[in-house]
Write a structure and sequence with these properties.
The chain is of the alpha+beta class. It is 18% helix and 24% strand. Helix 14 runs antiparallel to helix 15. The longest helix has 17 residues, at 487-503. The radius of gyration is 26 Å and the shape is globular.
């Protein structure tokens, strides 16, 4: 079915009855049976700002039901164990709409955003200027921390999804405690939310707690010691309530307290896992309802002609998994979204398997790199898997959307990106279909940095201390944060994507590092041509510095192609380590192969997609990669300063001569980016003005 046939043949549902603020929907409306509006609030403009189009935000809850027998739902792990008496499975999902008050001003485009750990990113002013609509709806049903279920929805609150559990099921789960010290009890944390499962028994003899003196990037374990069952408790304790403390299934109390130089890992039996894969269907159905329902109670009824799914980081990984499992085909059989934008996300989320922990960010033993991470079918002989790709199911049903993906360097170095480009064997660049665009924003932090120019100058804006390493209490970086932004590039991509979906105007060709053109190499100092940089050890980055893809053995009941099934090994065994690749660099250490970015074409330092974990109060990962945060090393101001520091990189004066010389370099870089369609003229003008006002060589 072509896109034109889809638009012509699409059958909208029937109208529904409404009582007070509750909307009752017919079964034809993507199985959303009831809508409750909890809050309506005018969109708050910045102080002194005005908007051409008045906007409002609408928060509420969608009540939905799923038929487990439908093929599009049957793929959900354990859905058959969560049915009610009538054979259906039910959920409640919150949603947030941002829309014109008067829908006559709507553009016809809806952005369907995937919340990130319950959080919704603010709608961009440019999208409101266009008259677009933003819908964010819940998908993460682990009922933990930020995604904990609440009585109602609110405009300023977190998004949550209430899903049933697989009743009567037990299995082993693991959790970890790292960089913690002292006598106080500690929770089990994944990223920055609690592990969503609790022990079925508080008897420590039925669990196993170990401590480790170290772990390597390739999964090596050093100095593992078992903690006797009598030396710890499932309990809350502190100085006033010492060991063994007060019983608590969410905390571990350790006799003698925690040593910050050691990591603690517990394996325990849990019961009644959440059926988290329902989050794929709930997000699909809520999106299809608001896009297509013609009932008078739908505040968007008849106003949406196009939609683009969008997610950042964890949420972008969600979109890749959502598409891979076929969820862009609604229960109606039609394509749900016309476009899909996974942002800084190079893997499929670990969601649709028993005991999943979707907050994971690919630290040791966290799932998410299993199976094909690439779009088109490609064999995986390294891991013994047949040819497969993310687009297989939507290709079979003609429901694939147009896709734009963009990444930065942090995704390469810490989030295991490059197998998506070159496969598990790394022998050749993998092809892209003509409806996929890939853009690489070289030498950048996860989701870009703060931007500006003084942010690269010591004493003018560059902080003295390093940034926090993301993850489970991972540590702090040695280098200051990388300021190279994504903002202006994303502004341009947004315009291109709208025009592609709404008008059929193709965006610029893909641009990213490749083996074929010599801009991608093995991830090591020699492989990428990294120079020696002041303040860092001469050997960095070593071949084991990057976070590699680990081929895990989850047990015989796990489906590696789909990332589904039942893991029976906790933690998993490591079968092998995949070869990793990274962009090659120029003489300054900045990466090659990306789209034009002004601060990279007129650099003020070496900008890195990685950082180094410091020792200090959180020493467990010291000298290793600082998870997925970038760093930078500024250029010296003068030749004399750089020579005194032993810095081989030309100084600012040697590069630009004067402040006006730097402004001219920015002007030239901006012109290039505009010409190649990766910078909007309005943003180019703003960057030039910012360079003129900066302290560079003043």
């Amino acid at each position: 079915m072509t896109r034109q046939e889809f638009a012509r043949n699409f059958a909208v549902g029937t109208a529904a009855a409404i009582a007070a603020l509750v909307v009752f929907c017919t079964g034809a409306q993507a199985r959303v049976t009831r809508i409750v509006i909890d809050e309506v609030r005018p969109f708050a403009e910045p102080a002194g700002g005005t908007a051409a189009i008045a906007y409002e935000q609408v928060a509420g809850r969608a009540f939905g039901e799923l038929d487990p027998k439908l093929p599009g739902n049957a793929i959900i792990q354990d859905i058959g164990l969560a049915t009610e008496a009538d054979g259906k499975v039910r959920y409640v999902a919150t949603f947030l709409l941002a829309k014109p008050v008067d829908m006559k001003h709507a553009s016809g485009l809806m952005w369907h955003d995937v919340p990130n750990r319950g959080r919704v990113f603010a709608m961009a002013p440019q999208e409101r200027a266009f008259g677009d609509v933003m819908l964010a709806s819940a998908w993460q049903g682990d009922n933990s921390g930020w995604t904990a279920v609440r009585p109602t929805a609110s405009v300023s609150g977190m998004q949550w999804l209430q899903v049933p559990v697989a009743r009567g099921v037990t299995g082993e789960v693991f959790g970890r405690i790292v960089n913690r010290s002292g006598a106080n009890s500690q929770p089990l944390v994944v990223q920055d939310n609690p592990v969503p499962y609790k022990p079925a028994s508080l008897d420590t003899a039925k669990a196993k707690l170990v401590s480790r003196g170290g772990e390597g990037m390739r999964g090596e374990v050093y100095d593992e010691v078992a903690v006797p069952a009598g030396d710890w408790a499932w309990a809350r304790c502190d100085d006033k309530t010492p060991f063994p403390g007060t019983p608590d299934p969410a905390q571990i109390c350790l006799k003698g307290g925690f040593d910050p130089a050691r990591l603690y890992q517990v394996v325990f039996t849990a019961a009644d896992p959440y059926v988290l894969g329902i989050g794929f269907a709930a997000w699909r159905d809520v999106g299809e309802f608001f896009k297509t329902s013609m009932s008078a109670e739908n505040p968007l009824a008849g106003a949406i002609k196009f939609s683009i799914a969008r997610g950042v980081s964890q949420s972008g990984n969600y979109l890749r998994g959502w598409l891979h499992l076929g969820f862009n085909r609604g229960e109606s059989g039609h394509r749900v979204h016309d476009g899909l934008w996974p942002i800084i996300a190079g893997r499929r989320i670990a969601l649709n398997f028993r005991w999943a922990q979707p907050d994971g960010v690919l630290e040791l033993y966290q799932a998410g790199s299993e199976g094909p991470q690439w779009w088109l079918p490609h064999p995986d002989p390294v891991r013994g898997l047949p040819a497969a790709g993310i687009l297989d199911r939507c290709t079979a049903t003609d429901t694939c959307p147009k896709i734009i993906e963009h990444f930065g360097s942090a995704e390469v170095w810490a989030l295991k990106l490059t197998p998506e480009w070159v496969g598990a064997d790394g022998k050749a660049d993998l092809p892209l279909p003509d409806f996929v665009r890939r853009y690489y924003i070289a030498s950048t932090n996860h989701n870009g940095g703060a931007g500006g120019f003084d942010t690269s100058l010591p004493g003018a804006g560059l902080p003295k201390s390093g940034p926090k390493c993301p993850g489970n209490n991972f540590g702090v970086g040695v280098l200051p944060a990388n300021p190279v932004p994504h903002t202006q590039t994303v502004n341009a991509i947004r315009v291109h994507f709208r025009d592609w979906v709404m008008k059929g105007t193709p965006p610029p060709p893909s641009r990213y590092p490749m083996l074929a053109d010599g801009t991608l190499g093995e991830a090591s100092k020699a492989g990428i041509g990294m120079p020696a940089l002041p303040g860092l050890r001469a050997t960095i980055p070593e071949a084991d510095f990057i976070m590699p893809v680990l081929d895990y053995d989850w047990g015989p009941q796990f489906n590696y192609l789909d990332g589904s099934g039942v893991p029976t090994l906790a933690p998993p065994r490591i079968k092998q380590v995949l070869k990793m690749f990274a962009p090659k660099v120029v003489a300054d250490g900045n990466e090659r192969g990306g789209v034009p970015v002004v601060l990279l074409d007129a650099p003020l330092g070496t900008y890195l997609g990685w950082n180094v974990a410091a020792a200090g109060a959180m020493p467990f990962h010291k000298d290793q990669i600082c998870n997925y945060v970038g760093g930078m090393i500024p250029f010296a101001r003068t030749a004399a300063e750089r020579k005194a520091a032993g810095d081989p990189r030309p100084s600012l004066e040697e590069r630009y001569g004067s402040h006006e010389g730097y402004v001219n370099a920015v002007r030239k870089a901006a012109a290039r980016a505009v010409e190649e369609k990766f910078l909007l003229p309005v943003d180019a003008e703003a960057l030039i003005k910012a360079a003129q006002a900066s302290a560079v060589l003043k």
